[in-house]
Amino acid sequence: MKVAVLGGGAFGTALAVSLAANGPVTLWARNAGAWRDRTCPKLEGVTLPGRVTLTGDVAEALTADTLLFALPMQSLAGLLDGLPEGLEGKALVACCKGIDLTRLTGPAAILAERAPAAMPAILTGPSFAADIARGLPTALTLACADEAMGKALQQALSTPALRLYRSRDVIGAELGGALKNVVAIACGACIGAGLGDSARAALMTRGFAEMTRLAVHLGAEPETLAGLSGLGDLTLTCTSDLSRNYRFGLALGRGEAFDAGTTVEGAATAQAAEALGRRDGIPLPICGTVSRLTEGTLTVPEAMDQLLARPLKEE
Ligand SMILES: NC(=O)C1=CN([C@@H]2O[C@H](COP(=O)(O)OP(=O)(O)OC[C@H]3O[C@@H](n4cnc5c(N)ncnc54)[C@H](O)[C@@H]3O)[C@@H](O)[C@H]2O)C=CC1
Ligand SMILES: O=C(CO)COP(=O)(O)O
Which of 15, 149, 183, 230 could bond to 225 as cystine, CB 3.0-4.6 Å? Predict the structure, then answer.
């Protein structure tokens, strides 16, 4: 397989560095001209190995037969719209974590909309770009509805340090990765506001229940949510300062400003999840709370009061 990564931010760069262990990789960055010394501005301290060809010309990347899309969720549809014909015969792998605000779908449906004959796959799970780029051990989920395609991608994209588990549950894998970011913002806000580790554990657990409720309603297998793409990534993102979603929540909880140029997927995902819950009558109190927190119509103390004042329920 000839592999290209589209999206030259932290994650696309880390994937290209990692996959170079298997052979040549092309990395397309729209801002390739702004790179200095083959170092991504979003992933300092990591230099591209010789096997990675960095290009600002998307046509060069499109000569590959396997394309990994590693850019923010809300940019995916626009990027695809601007690409020439010819995606149909390729393996298309989405690496973004989120729900498109306009369509209220994950990345696989957007890839399928653009290339109906292609079989989209999802690469997701607990992994910080900095860890992957340093070659630290990482396990991720590769989800593809077509088993043969899933097996081929699992082989091609696993490396000695990056171990891929296979799944056919595309919806479950992408929703786990999207929704954990919303819970991570809630957990960051909780810790930032000094509400304690017990409250965080409650938010993680009830957040996981909410993730599973929505994902199963939309067709996911509950077991997928309990795997790397759901519980695994939830655990990492809700407990580590390396997570941008968690740090954004910390800033909210402390009443501090946060750099608007940092990618925080959970804010738009909270809005999209809330819209899905409203549309389909699925209660999602934590997503709704995070949606209002991030748009600035609710404070952290008000948010906790509202969550605690909900009617008592069976677990
Ligand atoms: N950074 C991480 O540790 C991980 C990130 N991800 C996911 O990967 C996705 C991308 O995140 P990062 O690379 O970390 O973000 P980033 O902020 O480091 O980089 C985003 C990149 O996308 C590019 N981009 C944005 N819109 C574009 C467009 N329309 N066309 C072309 N390029 C465009 C930007 O120029 C930038 O280079 C997100 O969905 C994130 O959740 C997944 C796992 C780990
Ligand atoms: O998805 C990630 C870890 O699996 C990265 O998390 P952040 O986007 O919050 O940094």
Answer: 230
313 annotated ligand binder: no
In short, whether 127's Cβ falls inside 6 Å of ligand 2 is: yes
Burial of 16 (0-12, 13-18, 19+ CB in 10 A): buried
User: Do residues 17 and 3 lie in contact, with contact meaning Cβ atoms separated by under 8 Å?
Assistant: no
Which one is catalytic: 2, 42, 90, 180? 180
Question: How many whole angstroms from its chain centre is CA 164?
Answer: 16
> What is the 71 CA–ligand 1 centroid distance (Å)?
4
CB 133 within 8 A of CB 71: no
The reported pTM is 0.98
SS3 20: coil
Please check if 127 is assigned to a binding site: yes
pLDDT digit string, tens, across residues 280-298: 999 999 999 999 999 999 9
**Reduced 3-state DSSP string for 213-243:** HHHHHCCCCHHHHCCHHHHHHHHHHHHCCCC
Answer yes or no: is the ipTM higher than 0.90.
Answer: yes
The first and second tokens of residue 10, run together, are 């932290």
